[in-house]
Amino acid sequence: MGYELSAMQEKYIKINNLKVSEKLLNFVNDELLKNTNVSSENFWLGLEKTLDDLAPKNKQLIKLREDLQKKIDDWHINNKGNGVEIEQYKKFLKEIGYLKEEGPDFKIETSNVDDEIAQIAGPQLVVPIMNARDTLNAANARWVSLYDSLYGTNIIESEEGGSERYDPNRGQEVIKYVREFFDKYFPIDGTSWKNISTLKIKDKNLIILKEDKEYKLKDENKFVGHRGDVNKPTAIILKNNNLHFEIIINPKAFSAAHDIAGISDVIAESAVSTICDNEDSVAAVDAEDKVACYRNWLGLMRGDLKVQFEKNGKKLERKLNPDRSYISKEGKGLKLHGRSLLLIRNVGHLMTNSSIILNDGSEVPEGIMDAFITTTAALHDFKKKKNSRTGSIYIVKPKMHGPDETAFTDLIFSKVEELLGLQKYTCKIGIMDEERRTSANLKECIRTLKNRVFFINTGFLDRTGDEMHTSMEAGPMIKKGDMKSSRWISAYENNNVDIGLKCGFSGKAQIGKGMWAMPDKMKEMLDEKIGHLKAGANCAWVPSPTAASLHALHYHQINIFDEQKKIMKREQSKLDDLLTIPVADRPNWSVDEINKEITNSAQTLLGYVVRWIDQGVGCSKVPDINNIGLMEDRATLRISSQHIANWIHHGVTTKIQVMEIMKAMAKVVDKQNENDRNYIRMSDNFENSLAFKTACDLIFKGKDQPSGYTEPLLHLNRIEKKLA
């Protein structure tokens, strides 16, 4: 999308009929392909041949999106004032090919998936792959201190809450919380975890002492191993619902000073899997950025990614944690995976990238480039099997529209496997159910990938953005806050689970739910996010290792596979409800209500865009209008920009009014960022602030953006900023 601009700073090397950025070429030849059986010559020839075949198909699919959108726009314009009669609407959607005929029932046939996908339900982290330190933290978040997570969050209330000084009362509340949790899910026959004095192993069992009296767990199978001497173990491993806790015993540790049993910490198995993200959470716009992302992923697949940094005046190094070793209850060696299972999110089909220029002068479809390079990186793991024990690679594919596009994804990865000499279906695909045409045809989307699919996940924000864009001409949309209680949302969330279970996902693949966006509000997360398990999800997204350890508690409370069996018996969600358009019946909001809605959207939009354009930050904690930090990425941007664009289009507000609010909110955002030394104020010069211009364009040009996506404008302006 920015070839003309990028060409000003890129040096291109001619490889056959491709022009390849020197930065990308050197990375592929010197780093990516090193110690693989794939030669540089074969890689570039194979990629070129695939691009010759598939780049035109990619363009055709994007053109189909445009054609369908035009027909839907025209239908709403021609039926304006008549309302939407659902049978007539469905008939129209079938006629234009938007709705596909549903085929017979089937079960997915994906094989060689890791237990972390099929058998272990738990939290899933999403991390921007561009940031090596954050990526390593996420990979290592398989095991996280529950004591630290509780102590450092709002779950535990105490007078010293915000103090850096240790609060012993707060520490005791943490211990009490964990002991009460263990009493529920690892109960001792005859006593409480609060009263114990000693832990030891005897006759293959965990012996728990209260003074001199011995007790055992009610379910002795929940004890699986230990570390150290049987009479004085240094660690005890417990297991429930396929998730572990490690009890650390170190009476000399500061944290054990007030603990009779000498327990210094409890480590929770937390982020079972992690999505390393090349998409919504990064600002990767050119070869330099893409290589930075690819290099970090390669380091993860080789197992040698490291980062050095300074913290509190000390130089530290972060690297991947090793596996964890114990002695099983039978006295044999017991190893547990020390890291989160790493998945890689590629970009969708829309975007192109200036890293490679095709023979016709067009940019490479970025999703195809991602497919080849991220899979090639996994060749290094296939030898060592440190990430996937089954020799698979897990690609999360976003923003696909319907079965034609999911089938195209299958074709792409078939070509990748052919070039790299991999067994067919080595590449597993996760379907992000975040576009309306995919939701409405989910069963048929899954069918096209039945040998590859390892996950389906709902993305509320992107999905709402597409909902509004698809039905832009239908009328003014309800307020953003009302979307979560609307009929289509409920049908969408339930449909994803219903279809997944019907297609045999339980015990074979992940059914996921979305992100908890408030990293500082962990008490609220504990209260609410258990709803994702009750809805049938065997994984759900969290924003941090701390959140992962706390959300992991939910998976001890509910056996998700039992829950899924119950859900299978309910009535399936209805397509009619899914296709209900969230327009306001009688939009009679007051001026204050309208302005408040726009103000909230404008503030978060500006807060996100200014960091994206000026600093290249793709995901960050952005304070909202009330100074509550929210994890924002392009999905939140899409819904905010589309909502305001819709209200302008239907006369709920005006461009002039929105511009006034944007300028006022720019001043608020400037104030919120005043302590950031790298921050460039927008309000000092609105005319020359590229960030402010971009934010305005996202709204005022939002109706004309493909599917309401924000990437084209963001990428174009970020490239301009980098060149400036």
Give the class-level CATH name of the largest domain: Alpha Beta
Unreliable stretches covering 5 or more consecutive residues: none
- How many runs of DSSP E, i.e. beta strands? 26
Task: Give me the side-by-side strand order of the main sheet.
Answer: 3-12-17-20-21-22-23-24
Mean pLDDT: 95
Please report the number of helical segments: 26
Helicity, in percent?
Answer: 40-55%
- Net shape: globular
Report the radius of gyration as a whole number of Å: 26 Å
Sheet/helix structural class = alpha/beta
Brief characterization of the structure:
With 724 residues, the chain is α/β, with parallel strands linked by helices. It has 26 helices and 26 strands. Helix 25 packs antiparallel against helix 26 (711-723).
